[in-house]
Amino acid sequence: MKPAPLTCHSPTSLDEALRLLHDIGSEAKVIAGGQSLVPVLNMRLATPGHLVDITGLPGLDEIRVGAEAVEVGARVTHRQLERSPAAYAALPLLRQTLVNVAHPAIRNRGTTVGSIAHADPNGEMPMILALTGGTVTAVSVRGERTLAAADLFVGPLETVLEPDEILVCARFGRFPEGTRTGFTELARRSGDYALAGAALAVQVIAGQMQQARMGFVSVTEVPTVLDLTDLVAGRAADQSAAVAEAVVERVHAHIDPESDIHATAEYRRHLTGVLARRLLTDLTTGEPARTSEEALRGAS
Amino acid sequence: MTTRMFGQRISRREDPRLVTGHGRYLDDLGSSALEAAFVRSPHAHARILDIDVSAVLDVPGVVAVWTYEDLEGKLSEPLPMLLPHPSITAPVTGHVLAANEVNHVGEPIVMVIATNRYLAEDAASHIEIDYEFLDPVVGIETARQGSALVHDQAPGNVAAHLVQDVGDAPGRIASAPHVLELDLDIERSACMPMEGKGVLARWNREDSSLRVHSSTQTSTGVRAALAARLELPLGKVDVIAPDVGGGFGVKINHPWPEELALGAAAKILECEVKWTEDRREHFISSAHERQQLQRVRVGFDEEGRIYGLDVQFWHDNGAYLPYGVIVPLNTSTHILGPYNLPDYRVEYWSLYTNTVIVTPYRGAGRPQGVFLMERTMDAIADYLGRDRTEVRRMNFVREFPHPIGLIMQDGREGIYDSGDFDTSLDKLKALVGWDDFAACRERARAEGRRIGLGLGCYVEATGAGPYEGGHIEIETTGKVNVATGLTSQGQAHQTVFAQIVADELGVPIEMVEVTTGDTRRMGYSVGTWGSRGAVMSGNAVHLAAKKVKQKALTVAGRALEVDPADLEIVDGLVRVKGDPKAQMPLAMVSVLSNPLRYAFDEAAQAATQFGGRQDETKPPIAENDSPGLEDTDFYSPVRSTFASGMHAAIVETDPETADIRILRYCVVHDCGPMINPMVVEGQIHGGVAQGVGGALYEKMAYDSSGQLLNASFMDFLMPYASEVPQIETDHLETPSPLNPLGIKGAGEAGTIPVSAAIASAIEDAEGFPITRMPISPSELWELRRRHEAGEWPSLRHD
């Protein structure tokens, strides 16, 4: 388990990094935290001739909270984002989800933008990007482009990014006033990829549900958003049980789980429905499932 | 008076070094050595037609490329059949490098030696091998069908077939008021030590000797094998086990192909060469265990008294049989557990498959046997509507010694030497709150929760022979060096053996240093396996310490001019009982024990010819005596001693997601007098953790072509600390009459009944039988669906 020969480049400016990627072409891979890439290299499942390490680039390490979005630079680790009070205040779903991403040791190194670029359907953060209506910015020598999550992910582990592009930041959209969020998953072991997982954002104003959207991990090929607004809008939040079965039915129709050695597709389908119903119940019939104190405990 | 060390909860002396990064594991050694990588078969069953190594021969940094053709003399012979047994009908072992056929994915075919591991792996990836594919045999069902064969010389894929028959089980079952039949199924798991295997071999051309460090459980075994296969005198080979990051059984099998290949390379290339197994290699080319299909027929009466037990099981031994039939033999001889079953018949078939070999993993066949017996006990209790503990109690052995009429893995009859199963059960019931649980379960049900309680009871033959030795020398500084030949993989040998020796010699434990697994220090040893370290080497160092103490008293008695019988050793001082002023440090006794001609320092002058008074009528060294305060002794037991224990688990199963959580885990354990209860509890905790892995998480997911689909820690679900429950323990100490210290083994105990206890608890929570382990949420949910559809039975008395 040693990687095939490769050259590791450590550029010190974004321009230099982009030039390197352009010159090397498809033989190059961008590396940041390396939490997915390094195992792949060691098992020789991928044998790029060059790595361009972006951890030495200036900038790209900021979390900027704006009125519309939380912008996360390419070098920001999961752990930094998870523990950012400003990010949590603006978009609690980030921390609610990040505490479920692998283990602290991995979150300490892995970057949120890196996991989005990796586009693993088992990964939590690509789904959160989609659920929040987020965007990413990719840069290359040809310039900069901003992509919506829906346009970024095209298949499992597959994005529209060109080999010479660097994802420099991700913008997670903030939810409108009154939105309650939650994330839940069931994994075989703590920190494992989920057998199935779901996140829900439901807006409750004056006791009435308005918009609602749900995203899933491990049960869809690419992160997609399931809009439930038409099922819940105008209903009393504490009467959400009345629409629960309809929501589960909608979820079952939306997802496309597969069987593997850990669980059958049928079980995953059933499980996702259970998780969806529990999320809806937790977020509508009481306080949000995870209070800030609980989230902090989870993050500590 | 010095506090007796035996029985004290003293902290593990090895830990400060190990937890501060000062351990020296195999890969920490030999930083300038050449490194080896192996080309391993990507196919489960194939004939090797051609190997083309031409692409790598001239690559800079590549030193050697070996195939089977390059192996000379005894190196080219099949690997040894370590444990011949009369039941083995078709003994087949592999080769150092595959000869012309591969029989599992991962089998080594080519060894590449290069200046570092990166280059060796690069070169390995460019070697081309042509294969002719043969039908793979994967899984017990396919193996016993026998339409495709792993080895032509093993018809029906049968490696071994054994019947052990005591009394008249079929006849007694026929006369029993009730008869039940069960079919049970246990998956594969594996030891998965944090450190895989590893070998560092160094040839010394000055004296034509070989020194090998191996991450092994038996340095003497590896040494003997190396000497034999490399055709070297034993005196020219030393094998040392450095710090070893876990073994759990997989490192007792030997010689591994890599041990011989690296030893041969060092010798022939006259170099130092290293190989460190990586995790993928460990998954596909070391060893697995556990997989069995079992069929049980049991006859019993209204009260649950068993009349007869008739068992058949099929054991998957993988591609080869280097470790013989120890695993299925242990299963067959441990099924009886704490129960008195004079009418018992067991028959097993050990079957070849095109998968990784099966050799002992902590428990070594016993977990399967206990699963069988305990599932049977629960089935009887349910059939009769009786309490599960009462059915067990109805059958307990109560008189000792209790011969079971079966031949154990040491070739001797199993005789339970001591135990107290009623008290164990009483303690377990009290610890877990057995009698109150039914009410708890009903309360939980009323809240929409499912909880269940289960138990598992076992006995374990521990401390098997043939022997282990202890060598003790007291330096002229008073420091006590203890050596025993068996190896350490984290068992706290540096602590517990020192406790035993410190007690016997009357020295502070800080003065005692223990060396294990170094053939330079102790050439006679068997190895670390079968929960034998404390029993075997503990008693051996105890016996050696007794001899050294006697010698010290004799020498001191001569110097102090008192009868040795009037002397005692306290805090490192030899003194006259009742007269503490007449004393001499053990260090000085050591000086005097070696009569000198030449004084090398001031203290040594006392031992020279003019240094003190001498009895001129006697030679300086008495007949049958020897110079130096050192001696060796061996402990060789007449048979194994039986430890025992009982576990109880409380689980909660999610009514919707079928997620399974262990709420409580209780252990009552009897390994006789405990040398160090903290160490025993650590062994239990680690054992239970591995047991939980086997019960709820771990399996080897082979597809039908023999590819292992989960050969990494991402998909092989070894439990994390977060999955292992808090473990509550209580002890019972029933001494063994078989050895001087009265102790029994504890290393494997924690693992043995876990699957049985957790299956019992899930069954209790769910109300339908659990017959297959491990079980995942997905599988439990599937069982629920079948149960709801009427395709899976209910318990009778839920």
Written description of the protein model:
Chain A is of the alpha+beta class and 300 residues long. Chain A folds into three domains: 7-53, 2-Layer Sandwich (Uridine Diphospho-n-acetylenolpyruvylglucosamine Reductase, domain 2); 63-173, Uridine Diphospho-n-acetylenolpyruvylglucosamine Reductase, domain 3; 179-299, CO dehydrogenase flavoprotein, C-terminal domain (Enolase-like, domain 1, 2-Layer Sandwich). Chain A has 13 helices and 14 strands. Chain A has helices at 14-24, 37-42, 78-83, 85-90, 92-98, 104-109, 112-118, 124-131, 149-152, 229-232, 241-254, 265-284, 292-299; strands at residues 7-9, 28-31, 50-53, 63-65, 69-73, 135-140, 143-148, 153-155, 158-159, 166-173, 179-187, 194-205, 208-217, 225-227. In chain A, strands 4-5-10-6-7 form a five-stranded antiparallel sheet. A four-stranded antiparallel sheet of chain A has the order 11-12-13-14, sandwiched between helices. In chain A, a hairpin with a 2-residue loop joins strand 6 (135-140) and strand 7 (143-148). In chain A, helix 11 (241-254) packs antiparallel against helix 12 (265-284). The relative contact order of chain A is 0.12. With 798 residues, chain B is an alpha+beta fold. Chain B has three domains: 33-134 and 197-244 and 251-285, Alpha-Beta Complex (Aldehyde Oxidoreductase, domain 3), CATH 3.90.1170; 292-464 and 638-788, Aldehyde Oxidoreductase, domain 4, CATH 3.30.365.10; 465-635, Aldehyde Oxidoreductase, domain 4. Helices cover 26% and strands 25% of the residues of chain B. Chain B has a seven-stranded mixed sheet with strand order 3-5-1-12-9-10-11. Chain B has a six-stranded mixed sheet with strand order 7-15-14-13-8-29. A four-stranded mixed sheet of chain B has the order 18-26-27-28, sandwiched between helices. The longest helix of chain B is centred in the C-terminal third of the chain and has 28 residues, at 533-560. Chain B is globular and about 95 Å long. Chain A binds chain B through residues 1-5, 39, 43-44, 186, 188-193, 195, 261-264, 266-268, 270-271, 274-275, and chain B through 117-118, 121-122, 125, 278-281, 656-659, 697, 699, 701, 709-710, 712, 714-715, 717, 719-720, 722-723, 776-778, 781-782.
